[in-house]
Amino acid sequence: MLNRERGADADLGRLIGAVGRGDRVALRSLYEAVAPKLLGIIVRILQDRGAAEDALQEVFVRIWQRAGSYDPQAGAPMPWLVAIARNQAIDRFRQDKSTRLTQVEDGVLERLPDGQDGEADLAQRDALTTCLERVETPQRECIVLAYCEGWSREELAARYDCPVNTVKTWLRRGLISLRGCLEAA
Q1: What pLDDT was estimated at residue 119?
Q2: What family is reported (predicted)?
Q3: What is the DSSP letter of 116?
Q4: Which bin fits 106, alpha (ψ -120 to 50), beta or left (φ > 0)?
């Protein structure tokens, strides 16, 4: 078994060396040899197959660009390839999360779940919408993002560039205001 692993490492090392010299056929062979394993790692990090497939393409662009710097004396080829894939997936995850946290949130009230039991639910939804409109903007947006979209306090704090305790206060005050309005309605 150990000899087989050494043989596989040697084969991967030769392929990476050839890729470093600009050999496109070697890149294809390397892709066929390691893409399934690297894709599995990326999918576990991103939790989205489509995004993982895009990230895998970026991984192989990086491998193409960096293969000339691979030193087989510094370590086995598979950990080197896995590190590139893992780092790319983490970068992609952070970028996607950062984009999500900084997007302008338009129509936050339209994201309230629709009722499914007819007029009673419609009346409750209208009352909730009316009462939410009376809650101050950051509190209202935090409530909707937290309770309808599942955002964490930490994500909301990053979105509004404020401490987590401020978000907790906004949520608490917003819910108190909302409860008071709904009870009066």
Answers
A1: 60
A2: Belongs to the sigma-70 factor family. ECF subfamily.
A3: S
A4: beta
Contact between 139 and 170 (Cβ < 8 Å):
yes
Going by the DSSP 8-state scheme, the letter that residue 67 receives in this structure is G
The lowest-confidence range among 68-77, 125-134, 159-168 is 125-134
pTM: 0.53
123 and 52, same structural domain?
no
What is the CATH classification number for the domain harbouring 76? 1.10.1740.10
Domain end (from 102, 120, 135): 102
Q: Which domain holds residue 143?
A: 108-184
- Count of structural domains within the chain: 2
pLDDT at 167: 92
Question: Given 75, 102, 129, which residue is the final one in a domain?
Answer: 102
Average pLDDT over residues 49-65: 94
In a shared domain, residues 24 and 96 = yes
H and E: helices and strands count for the chain: 8, 0
In this structure, are 68 and 119 located in the same domain? Answer: no
pLDDT computed for residue 62 by the predictor? 96
User: 74 with 112, same domain?
Assistant: no
| Mean predicted confidence (pLDDT) in 11-23 | 94
Residue 144's H or E segment, with its range, is helix 137-148
Q: What span, in angstroms and rounded, lies between the C-alpha atoms of 51 and 48?
A: 5
From 36-40, 74-78, 113-117, the region with the lowest mean pLDDT: 113-117
Q: Is the dihedral of CA 136, 137, 142, 143 positive or negative?
A: positive
